[in-house]
């Protein structure tokens, strides 16, 4: 099956072939900065059950530095649970998740695996930034206050330093002029950009995005995706759960298709979107097309 | 019916007593608020034992009439070896403990109204539980429950009339004393009622103003 996302089989040169590769030499040659480990995130045999329901089964995944991984799949496929496990917001109960080599969430004792102390969990995920579907800004603080809070309280920045870094982050997402606005005074897209700035202020090594545009009005989706594209270009390591197939096609280095808690297919955007082999993936993409390819059905 | 010279003579005395009532109520409000935050968050603790301790506190101090609590603190505690408490201290302790129980329930409601995602985000950014409580949960819970908190404050000021049983010369006790000596019961007690309204009505009004302002900003 060819070009599922491009109706009519005529595939115009897709932009993803150039976007990422102009900024990075090659997909096979992940960027190494200052001799740091190139693998940021490693999942091996990760599983998770809610009661009798196994929502994640034997997930194997490695994310290299500067790689952008998009997780796609039908709702209930476990992609959000998987992403939340990477920040230990869900306690995975099988396998291992390692962030820059350190085991996340658990520690091995004589009596088996125990939940690690909170301080240790925080230490391991110190370099993980996360952006949520519902933004989760603190409504009683201004945009700048939201961005500066953790800098002040956790990283112990002085008020001036925090403000400087906070403003720089807000400028980065194009909201320097909204620093004193409260979340309620901002549009959904602006709130999500503040949330991105808040996560970026902590200088994370990896950013997790949990359906960052799903709660937005359609006309506000673009501004958030644009910020994410810029981040990707700058070499940020990202794992993105998304329903925005266009974004996945253009920005991702690899796309992972989850269904019923399993990784069913993985590959480059081209492999996933143009040469889907797995019936479940084909069906998922076909459903997506049926919903989105409105121009095909337009009356003349 | 009114004896104006007597009224003019009594008013300053009541004004002084009003000050006592205010001091005791405000002190109780501050301590009660601290107790309320602690007990309110205990009630939502993931640890069952802490939850039960919070529940027990509320059960005791909301279940026993304030008058009985005050008598207990003032007369009974010294008998069991605790040092003599002054009327002022007994009044403040009694009012604080009771106010704490009510405020705990109010704060619990406020805490529950905060979306969990906000705390997830805070935890992931590395904020400690204490920082989350003081920076994220309490400020929002106070905004969300402001009407209930002001109502509690007004109830507290009114309840403070009970501290006269431990011999503190608050507003109520002073009016009683005046009435007992000049036999102008109606006049003195009307004045007493007026003084309570003098605090509580502006308080309610200020709260509604404040509430409107906070709504404009954050809603």
From TrEMBL, chain B:
The membrane-topology field of this record reads: Multi-pass membrane protein
Listed transmembrane segments: 20-44, 56-77, 89-107, 144-169, 189-210
Pfam families with a match to the protein in the record = BPD_transp_1 (PF00528)
Q: Which InterPro entries does the entry link to? A: AA_ABC_transptr_permease_3TM, ArtM/GltK/GlnP/TcyL/YhdX-like, MetI-like, MetI-like_sf
UniProt GO BP? amino acid transport
A GO CC term?
Answer: ATP-binding cassette (ABC) transporter complex
Keyword Methyltransferase included in the entry's annotation: no
Q: Which GO terms describe its molecular function?
A: transmembrane transporter activity
Keywords assigned by UniProt, alphabetized: Amino-acid transport, Cell membrane, Membrane, Transmembrane, Transmembrane helix, Transport
Its localization reads:
Cell inner membrane; Cell membrane
Q: Which residues form the ABC transmembrane type-1 domain?
A: 18-211
**Is Membrane one of the keywords UniProt gives this record?**
yes
Superkingdom as given in the UniProt entry: Bacteria
**Annotated Gene3D superfamilies:** MetI-like
Q: Which SUPFAM superfamilies match?
A: MetI-like (SSF161098)
Question: Mind telling me which NCBIfam families this protein's record contains?
Answer: HEQRo_perm_3TM
Family, similarity comment = Belongs to the binding-protein-dependent transport system permease family. HisMQ subfamily.
Protein name as it appears in the record:
Amino acid ABC transporter
């Amino acid at each position: 099956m060819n070009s599922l996302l491009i109706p009519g089989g005529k595939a115009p040169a897709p932009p993803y072939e150039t976007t990422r590769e102009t900024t990075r030499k090659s997909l096979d040659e992940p960027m190494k900065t200052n001799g740091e480990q190139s693998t940021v995130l490693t999942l091996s045999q990760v599983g998770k059950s809610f009661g009798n329901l196994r929502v994640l089964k034997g997930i194997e995944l490695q994310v290299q530095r500067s790689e952008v991984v998009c997780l796609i799949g039908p709702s209930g496929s476990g992609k959000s649970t998987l992403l939340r496990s990477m920040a230990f917001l869900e306690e995975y109960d099988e396998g291992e998740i390692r962030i820059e080599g350190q085991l996340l969430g658990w520690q091995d004792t004589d009596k088996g695996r125990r939940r690690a102390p909170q301080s240790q969990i925080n230490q391991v995920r110190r370099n993980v930034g996360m952006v949520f579907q519902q933004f989760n800004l603190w409504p009683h603080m201004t945009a700048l206050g939201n961005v500066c809070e953790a800098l002040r309280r956790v990283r112990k920045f002085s008020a001036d330093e925090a403000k400087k870094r906070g403003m720089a982050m807000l400028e980065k997402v194009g909201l320097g002029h909204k620093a004193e606005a409260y979340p309620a005074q901002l549009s959904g897209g602006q709130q999500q950009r503040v949330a991105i700035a808040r996560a970026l202020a902590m200088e994370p090594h990896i950013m997790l995005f949990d359906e960052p545009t799903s709660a937005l009005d359609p006309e506000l989706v673009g501004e958030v995706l644009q910020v994410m594209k810029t981040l990707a270009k700058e070499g940020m390591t990202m794992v993105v759960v998304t329903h925005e197939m266009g974004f996945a096609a253009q920005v991702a280095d690899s796309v992972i298709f989850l269904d019923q808690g399993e990784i069913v297919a993985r590959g480059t955007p081209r492999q996933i979107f143009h040469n889907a082999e797995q019936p479940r993936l084909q069906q998922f993409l076909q459903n997506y097309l049926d919903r989105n390819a409105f121009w095909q059905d337009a009356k003349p | 019916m009114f004896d104006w010279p007597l009224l003019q003579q009594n008013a300053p005395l009541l004004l002084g007593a009003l000050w006592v009532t205010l001091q005791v109520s405000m002190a109780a409000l501050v301590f009660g608020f601290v107790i309320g935050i602690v007990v309110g968050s205990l009630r939502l603790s993931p640890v069952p034992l802490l939850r039960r301790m919070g529940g027990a506190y509320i059960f005791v101090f909301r279940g026993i009439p304030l008058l009985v609590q005050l008598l207990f603190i003032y007369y009974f505690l010294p008998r069991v070896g605790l040092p003599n408490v002054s009327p002022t201290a007994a009044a403040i302790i009694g009012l604080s403990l009771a106010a704490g129980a009510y405020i705990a329930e109010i704060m619990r409601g406020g805490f529950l109204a905060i979306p969990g995602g906000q705390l997830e985000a805070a935890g992931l950014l590395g904020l400690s539980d204490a920082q989350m409580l003081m920076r994220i949960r309490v400020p929002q819970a106070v905004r969300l429950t402001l009407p209930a908190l002001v109502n509690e404050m007004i109830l507290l000021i009114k309840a403070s009339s009970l501290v006269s049983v431990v011999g503190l010369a608050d507003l109520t006790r002073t009016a009683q004393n005046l009435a007992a000596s000049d036999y102008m019961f109606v006049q003195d007690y009307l004045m007493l009622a007026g003084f309570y309204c003098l605090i509580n009505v502006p308080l309610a009004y200020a709260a509604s103003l404040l509430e409107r302002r906070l709504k404009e900003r954050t809603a």
